[in-house]
Design goal:
This protein has 220 residues and is α/β, with parallel strands linked by helices. It has nine helices and seven strands; from the N terminus they run βαβαβααβααβααββα. 35% of the residues lie in helices and 15% in strands.
């Protein structure tokens, strides 16, 4: 099995555009970072974001729309503006923010984004949010062990993949740092590595299925 290597540390400031991220965070806020291609966004994403917001008592959840996932072909990824607009349709409710901060920062990898935002907002309590499907392949992310040591991680259950994700390389390697469901509320204040698995009702929508459905519709 192939494992991604560590990421080299880049400039914390990123590109000049990083001076204007499009959102403001106050010291002491509990903020979830929800990254992804959102290609396209759907109710399953909204379910993950809202579950994390409610269970972790977050002030904000920032949907970080990636300019291009390094693990996915660019030919299958819609334009950033289109994916941003789609994310806005589902990022409903209090505290939800859709952002192109990764493009502004010039961040290619999640570890770069996390380090840049922590440097910009040193007194904000960040948590990385992902669905269980992402945890199952987390060991393929560049610098994945570094991410776990930089920021607490909240994993929200997703259908079909939940059991596999809990026995994934990342879950096994960091199993002694897993917080219980009762402890999950304190995750934003936890010293990393720290992560929690948030169980709840399943939402069965997926970007892969939606793209396949659209492709079939175009070929008819």
């Amino acid at each position: 099995m192939w494992f991604a290597g560590p990421a080299r540390r880049g400039p914390e400031g990123g590109r000049p555009g990083a001076l204007r991220l499009g959102f403001h965070l106050e010291p002491g806020m509990r903020v979830g970072l929800f990254g992804g291609s959102f290609n396209p966004a759907h109710e399953g994403h909204a379910h993950v974001a809202e579950t994390a917001r409610r269970r972790l008592k977050l002030d904000k959840v920032i949907w970080l729309v990636s300019p291009q996932n390094p693990l996915k072909p660019a030919s299958e990824t819609a334009d950033l503006a289109e994916r941003m607009e789609g994310a806005r349709r589902f990022a409903r409710g209090p505290g939800m923010i859709v952002s192109d901060a990764e493009t502004r920062l010039g961040a290619q990898y999640t570890i770069d984004t996390v380090r840049a935002l922590k440097a910009r907002f040193p007194k904000v309590r960040f948590v990385w949010i992902m669905g269980a499907d992402s945890l199952a392949t987390f060991h393929r992310w560049r610098g994945w062990t570094q991410i776990m040591r930089e920021i607490p991680v909240a994993v929200v259950s997703r259908p079909w993949i939940s059991l596999k994700s809990r026995f994934s390389p990342a879950a096994l390697r960091f199993r002694r740092f897993r917080k219980s469901a009762i402890e999950a509320t304190g995750l934003p204040k936890a010293r990393p590595p720290a992560w929690a698995y948030l169980r709840g009702r399943f939402n069965f929508q997926s970007s892969t299925a939606l793209r396949a459905r659209r492709k079939r519709a175009r070929t008819r």
